[in-house]
């Protein structure tokens, strides 16, 4: 198996090293693992691409490249520049530091990379490690992902739904904020929504008098809708959520025919 890996935390992120280990084990001794990752952290950029300016790409070593761009840029670079004559069988993105459950998925560069791969017709999976009181003081905060990542991916590749239609399915995996030994299992989940927990801004005035805004997040340990990805993560389960890039509200189409 030929695997392309990327992330949004940057080429030197510890989560990318975890994913590298998982990918090599998944690819097997006869397989290949190629890395094309951002030069700097790109958290929160979603599915952004560098449409209006060029991006520099640098070869660091065999099958390992760094791109001054977004995670989606990295997928484009990997498919069309680094590996144009030998496309990957699978794209893996992560392992993100922090969860991409619920509404976080909409902002995630980790998911943006997987989405771009799916749009390009390549099977893709995003992987993220939820953080919380039970795992933040571990020697390895990625322990749950490191231990359970490979068997979860193998099960998904064997049992998952993989389509090659216009908006092909990609997957969002979140590992729970617990030590590996406390993981309860795997749950197929929908994307949740944390009410009253959206992003905001906090203003600061610089010594120069200029006004700056820091984007603020919200607590990630509060309960969310039952059975959703974040809910199951907080109960100790690995969540696996099938996703598509199609933004159509299909449930509203029939009612909307009244305007015709």
UniProtKB/TrEMBL annotation:
Chief location bin: cytoplasm
Keywords: Cytoplasm, Hydrolase, Metal-binding, Nucleotide-binding
Record-level GO cellular component terms: cytoplasm
Subcellular location(s) of the protein: Cytoplasm
UniProt entry tagged with the keyword Metal-binding: yes
Transmembrane feature ranges: none
Keyword Metal-binding among UniProt keywords: yes
Pfam families recorded: SurE
Cofactor: a divalent metal cation
Xref: SUPFAM superfamilies: SurE-like (SSF64167)
Catalytic activity, as annotated: a ribonucleoside 5'-phosphate + H2O = a ribonucleoside + phosphate
Residues the entry annotates as binding a divalent metal cation: 8-9, 43, 96
Domain of life from the UniProt record: Bacteria
Annotated cofactor note: Binds 1 divalent metal cation per subunit.
Group of enzyme by EC: hydrolase
Residues annotated as domain Survival protein SurE-like phosphatase/nucleotidase: 3-195
E.C. designation(s): 3.1.3.5
A Gene Ontology molecular function term of the record: nucleotide binding
NCBIfam families per the UniProt record, alphabetical: PRK00346.1-4 (NF001490), PRK13931.1 (NF010541), surE (TIGR00087)
Function comment: Nucleotidase that shows phosphatase activity on nucleoside 5'-monophosphates.
Entry's family note: Belongs to the SurE nucleotidase family.
Protein name, entry field: 5'-nucleotidase SurE
Organism name: Roseovarius faecimaris
The encoding gene: surE
């Amino acid at each position: 198996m030929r695997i392309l890996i990327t992330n949004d935390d940057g080429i030197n992120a510890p989560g990318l090293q975890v994913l590298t280990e998982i990918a090599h084990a998944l690819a097997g001794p006869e397989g290949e693992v190629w890395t094309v990752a951002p030069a700097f952290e790109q958290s929160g950029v979603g599915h952004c691409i560098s449409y209006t300016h060029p991006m520099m790409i640098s070869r660091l070593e065999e099958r390992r490249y760094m791109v001054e761009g977004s995670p989606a840029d990295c997928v484009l670079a990997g498919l069309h520049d680094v590996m144009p004559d030998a496309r990957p069988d699978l794209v893996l993105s992560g392992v993100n530091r922090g969860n991409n459950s619920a509404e976080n998925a909409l902002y995630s560069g980790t998911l943006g990379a997987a989405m771009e791969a799916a749009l390009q017709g390549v099977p893709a999976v995003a992987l993220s490690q939820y953080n919380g009181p039970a795992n933040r003081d571990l020697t390895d905060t990625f322990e749950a992902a490191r231990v359970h990542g490979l068997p979860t991916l193998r099960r998904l590749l064997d049992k998952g739904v993989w389509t090659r239609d216009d908006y092909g399915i990609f997957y969002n995996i979140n590992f729970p904020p617990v030590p590996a030994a406390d993981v309860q299992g795997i749950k197929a989940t929908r994307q949740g929504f944390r009410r009253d927990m959206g992003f905001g801004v906090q203003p600061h005035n610089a010594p120069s008098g200029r006004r700056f805004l820091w984007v603020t997040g919200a607590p990630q340990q509060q309960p969310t809708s039952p059975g959703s990805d974040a809910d199951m993560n907080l109960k100790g389960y690995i969540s696996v959520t099938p996703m598509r890039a199609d933004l159509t509200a299909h449930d509203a189409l029939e009612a909307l025919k009244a305007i015709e």
